Amino acid sequence: MTRGTALITGASSGIGAVYAEKLAGRGFDLVIVARDFDRLSAISKRVSRDYGVAVTPLPADLSNSTDLKKVLAKLGDDMTLRLLVNCAGMGPNGTVLASDVEGLSEMVHLNVDVLHALTVTAAKVFASRGEGAIINIASVVALMPERFNPTYVASKAFVLALTEALEVELKPKGVRIQAVLPGFTRTEIFDRAGIDIKMIPQEMMMDASEMVDAALAGFDLGEIVTIPSLADLSLWQNFSQARGELAPHLSLKHAAGRYAIGAN
Ligand SMILES: NC(=O)c1ccc[n+]([C@@H]2O[C@H](COP(=O)([O-])OP(=O)(O)OC[C@H]3O[C@@H](n4cnc5c(N)ncnc54)[C@H](OP(=O)(O)O)[C@@H]3O)[C@@H](O)[C@H]2O)c1
């Protein structure tokens, strides 16, 4: 007996590959998605041998609409699916002003549009069955927009907001959703973006295995938002509370007095 199937995007390297290993260790069969079929096949053979679970490589370029449709169809068709983990994503190199808009749009498409389509499709399927879970890999930069490439930051803020908002709809249906906000994590993302990982302070860099262990522990604790590095949880709770206190003041019939437009 397994715990059902987990579909993991971006499973050929980095955080997604670690999720594949850890979820197999927890008894999930896997469908692993990425572009690099050779790497998927190697992971598939090793993980199925080591953990005795079924691992199916599903090669797909998620930025390609035909390939994306194939993965969306899998989410709808596979009755054993219980978990979607969205890890496929790309990072930037440098500032927006120094980047070409086509490259930035490609990143928005993968980090936002593709993740959105997969998340909403899985949400509908799981909600109709009254069970299932979705794990979305965002980033701590969603909480500090001034510190990083603006397009990447905005793409990760989308993932965080989508997850928190969707949780409201999914909870009554018996479906879990979690946003994971890693800080710097040792993966290929830096190489792929042309960034020298050695330029990043090593005390800020977590190993992917430790990051995923913490994220899964956060999932087990029932967290909707997991920040693996954050030791003092009250900092996040205070931040969320302050946001909640803003809410009753954000949509009112009249403009605020400081705008002096005479309606008050
Ligand atoms: N590493 C960090 O410091 C860090 C921090 C915060 C958040 N994150 C987020 O964590 C997620 C995973 O990144 P990572 O650090 O593990 O980087 P990574 O090692 O570069 O992994 C990215 C994965 O996405 C896949 N991928 C990329 N483009 C794809 C496409 N068009 N279609 C299908 N798969 C695609 C890659 O496989 P193929 O090349 O085989 O397609 C690879 O498996 C990303 O969303 C990233 O933004 C990373």
Briefly say what this structure is:
The protein has 264 residues and is of the alpha/beta class. Helix content is 46%, strand content 14%.
Structure write-up:
This protein is of the alpha/beta class. The protein has a 7-stranded parallel β-sheet, sandwiched between helices. The chain has a two-stranded parallel ribbon with strand order 7-8. The structure holds NADP nicotinamide-adenine-dinucleotide phosphate. The site of NADP nicotinamide-adenine-dinucleotide phosphate has 30 residues, from helix 1 and helix 6.
Largest sheet: 7 strands, parallel
Strand content: 5-15%
CATH class: Alpha Beta
Query: pLDDT under 50 segments (min length 5)?
Result: none
Quick check: average pLDDT? Answer: 96
Distance between the termini: 66 Å
Q: How many H/I helices?
A: 8
- Compute the number of strand runs: 9
The name of the CATH architecture is 3-Layer(aba) Sandwich
Number of domains: 1
- Write the H/E string, N to C: EHEHEHEHEHEEHEHEH
Relative helix content: 40-55%
Shape: globular
Strand order of the largest sheet: 3-2-1-4-5-6-9
* Heterogens: NADP nicotinamide-adenine-dinucleotide phosphate
Structural class: alpha/beta
Radius of gyration: 19 Å
| CATH-defined fold name | Rossmann fold
For this structure, what is the CATH homologous superfamily? NAD(P)-binding Rossmann-like Domain
